[in-house]
Design a protein that fits this description.
1% strand; 322 residues; mainly alpha; 15 helices; Farnesyl Diphosphate Synthase
Length: 322
Amino acid sequence: MDIKNIQAPIASEMIEFETKFRHFMKSNVLLLDKIMSYIVKRKGKQIRPMFVFLSAGMSGQINETTHRGAALIELLHTATLVHDDVVDDANLRRGFFSINALWKNKIAVLVGDYLLSRGLLLSIDNGDFNLLKIVSNAVREMSEGELLQIEKARRLDITEEIYFDIIRQKTASLISSCCAVGASSVNASQETIDLMKEFGMKVGIAFQIKDDLFDYGTDDIGKPLGIDIKEKKMTLPLIFALNKASWLEKRNIIYIIKNQSNKPKKVAEVIEFVKKSGGLHYAQVAMNDYFLQSIELLKGFPDSTYKKSLQDLVEFTITRTK
């Protein structure tokens, strides 16, 4: 499935958005402007703005508020990524050097703060308080989800219920806010906004489970094999495998994750253990279930090119290979 085809109904909006987004990131401070240009240059597939524009188009008429909503999400999301790279001491982001790798941690933290304030001011200056409320809630949830994950990683005692709590907050809340912002920007009813929020939440959960599966090399491309295991992150395939394991096996795997996750041979052992347990199949079934639930929620909307592309975009997020 080609992202260009999915983008077709909003192609002109995406081009216009890029220009507007550059403008929103402008600064009089030369160093900051240089970093902003670098951030714009290394942008990814722009999945989030697409969710905003397609949700808006399906729910009403795309307008200036929609553009500001998409920019607000990108500004706040980019701020969290810049801060994340500092927290994780990461040198790369999407194949590019991270801000902290090129300009050091102090500058990266300040850049994140700047992006955050640009997003807040963009909304306040235009009276978009409804959008600001949606996105601010998402940022709060993302922070809480990240902290919950860190807390649980120390003891590796994550149940499936806690896992879903974490990904609902950490990943799904952002995609959920994209869809809610899109609907809200076109003055859709509260019922439609809530429905789109729920739709985005289910898509986000499916998206994260797909990310979990990458860790086990289910595709040719993707993130490095076993990276979640090395970072002591409990993913759905692993939680399922541990729940099925004998007491002794469970103890052995947890010991490896806690103390030997820096050894490739040991990481391979954990991957093999998960594959044998049926953990990958279990996660795939769960992912497909959330995918079908999300598509079901769109049934009440009249057929349109926006709706078709939104369905295709959801499919793209769970069939992607990186």
